Amino acid sequence: MAFELPALPYSVSALAARGMCQETLELHHGKHHQAYVTALNGFVEKDPALQGETLEAIIKLAHNSAPMAGVFNNAGQHWNHIIFWQAMSPGGGGIPGKLEQKLIADFGSVQAFKDAFKAAATTQFGSGWAWLVLTPSGKLACTKTANGSNPLATGEGRVLLGCDVWEHSYYLDFRNRRPDYVTNWLDKLANYEFAAAQL
After folding, report:
1. What is the pLDDT of residues 164-196, one digit of tens each?
2. Quick one: 97-198 is in which CATH superfamily?
């Protein structure tokens, strides 16, 4: 069965007032994410070993395999974007009590968490992702991955939030100002209710 582009959990114009314009969402979801899904399906169609496998299984199978780099990149980006759309909300920015307490316990303060997340996002050279993860030790941490990689592949923990720092995520709204995009994302777009549910 072919992988499919998931519908956005909000309209393409729903995030415009919070710093992500309709054109960004139309291009990012409808063109970029769709391209990863189409390419992944092409790889699966040609490889019987991938047919019938879950997206997660394909990512783990293809991770660190040079011959399967194309499979990994497209499967990873499909998985990453599924998280990304859910990790944003038109009513984003508010942190539920349970998650807030965990952030304070593990980072020292909510601001310290945001600083750590922003550092991960802005120091990722070139294309990639910033993540809030629940590590295997049970502590929250901020991490980053390059290109289409993710904590599922690297084993760094369960993802609570993922922020896309490829330029197509922010260039129309913030030009080359990635730090401003990340600050806005954390304060106005991040769906902390989703993060709390993942926790």
Report:
1. 999 999 999 999 999 999 999 999 999 999 999
2. Iron/manganese superoxide dismutase, C-terminal domain (3.55.40.20)
Contact 179/122 with Cβ under 8 angstroms?
yes
Cα torsion angle, 12, 123, 176, 37, sign: negative
User: 32-40 long-range CB contacts below 8 Å, 24 or more apart?
Assistant: 32/81, 32/168, 33/5, 33/77, 33/78, 33/81, 34/5, 36/74, 36/77, 36/78, 36/81, 36/148, 37/3, 37/4, 37/5, 37/74, 37/78, 39/70, 39/74, 40/3, 40/71, 40/74, 40/75, 40/78
- Residue in the structure block whose two tokens are 């019987």: 48
Whether 1 has a pLDDT exceeding 90, the answer reads: no
Q: Tell me, rounded to whole angstroms, the distance of Cα 55 from its chain centroid.
A: 15
Q: Which of these CATH numbers, 1.10.10.60, 1.10.150.120, 1.10.287.990, 3.40.50.150, describes 21-86?
A: 1.10.287.990
> What 3-state class would DSSP assign to 129?
strand
Which two tokens mark 155?
């084993």
Neighbours of 151 (CB within 10 A): 24
Take residue 42 and report the two structure tokens written for it: 């092409």
Mean pLDDT for 43-62 is: 97
pTM of the model as a whole: 0.98
Q: In this predicted model, what pLDDT tens digit does every residue of 12-21 receive, in sequence order?
A: 999 999 999 9
